[in-house]
Amino acid sequence: MALCLFFLAPMSSVGIGIRDTNTVFSKKPKPEVRKQLKRLNKPALKTIESPDGDIIDCVDIYNQPAFDHPLLKNHTIKMRPSSYPEGFSFDESNDISSNSKPEITQPWHLNGSCPEGTIPIRRTKEKDLLRAYYGKKKLSTIHDETDTSIHEYCQISEEGDRYYGLNAEINVWNPAVMAQDEFSLAQFWIAGVDNRNVIDTIEAGIMSDGYGRTGCYNLECPGFVQVDNRIVVGASVTPYSVYGGEQHSLNFFIWKDDLGGGDWWLYLSHRYLLGYWPASLFSIMAGSATYVSWGGEVTNTQIGGQHTTTQMGSGHFAEEATNRASFFQNLKVMDAQQVLRGPRNSRRSVTAPNCYNLLKHEDFFYFGGPGRSLQCP
């Protein structure tokens, strides 16, 4: 299970492709691979080998991938926001699990830390690029009607108001993923939509996948400016929750710093001011968001004409509830006065209820499921 950030600006997209299992990876031109690796992997001031096989580079904060974005060439880093929301505290969380612990650790922490003035970045390897390359190549050669990959959701959403932030505490599990081209995630969405359907969105959460995804995630997407030197986005997080036992969760809070120019800041697990998306990257969300959502998503590639066995959440249905079903809790949105409140007029959306479902309460919900089963063929 990895901590992931997603960013969609107008006219951009994130997609999941279908990998061609007959493709020979070595056919990708080596000069192109080396060129992309050089662009993605910035010079490191320190390197740390993680027990899980990742290589973590401590990169000068002023040399991070964010500044590859053409709109940020002359950007000045802000180490702190200029304003904080009213009552910047989450002590009033409606804790639906007495064993819930909003803490975060990553395997690489066992072998070192990054110095001040740097940020930790998971090194992109050649195999990562080759998987993405051939996934995109396959995606570009198929027609929509032959692409059997389906995105399935269990989510709570709300739209119509003006939103300036949101909060969510996400239960951490390690769901089984059936195939290399599939994923299972739990995340929030905050978006701006105008009458022309132009969309800005920011998304963040936790993902378990088969490492065959295509698209733009984490710091691979130039734009997010990281300021914290303790957390690697895109790297594994531990510990996981245990079925019938101890539960673990991460708290995500995002808000718009209007006094500081309108940047969108991300605060993680009550202690990590991770970074921000600069206001200059947005059109609609340069003002405010108009849509918020929390929930789970899986990709179902329907291998052999059957539903995937990829799990959502804990892999158990919402009715199993405390310590067994995965949850979102402490759902909040922030208004123009920087006051946090619970969602109102929210709606429930479940695309495949026989495979994954959702049980909604006032400011929390249980969700998830096993995927393919007797009731989900």
- State Rg: 20 Å
Let me know the average pLDDT.
83
By DSSP, the count of extended strands is 18
What is the straight-line distance between the termini? 26 Å
Q: Tell me the overall shape.
A: globular
Sheet with most strands: 9 strands, antiparallel
Count the DSSP helices.
Answer: 2
- This entry's quaternary arrangement is single chain
What order do the helices and strands follow?
A: EHEEEHEEEEEEEEEEEEEE
Beta-strand percent range: 25-35%
Proportion of residues in helical segments: under 10%
The low-confidence parts are 7-28, 90-94, 134-147, 211-215
- Class derived from helix and strand content: mainly beta
Describe the structure concisely:
The chain has helices at 30-40, 126-140; strands at 2-8, 44-49, 55-60, 118-122, 150-163, 165-171, 183-193, 199-209, 225-226, 249-257, 263-268, 272-277, 289-300, 326-334, 340-341, 347-350, 357-360, 365-368. By secondary structure, it is mainly β. A hairpin with a 5-residue loop joins strand 14 and strand 15 (340-341).
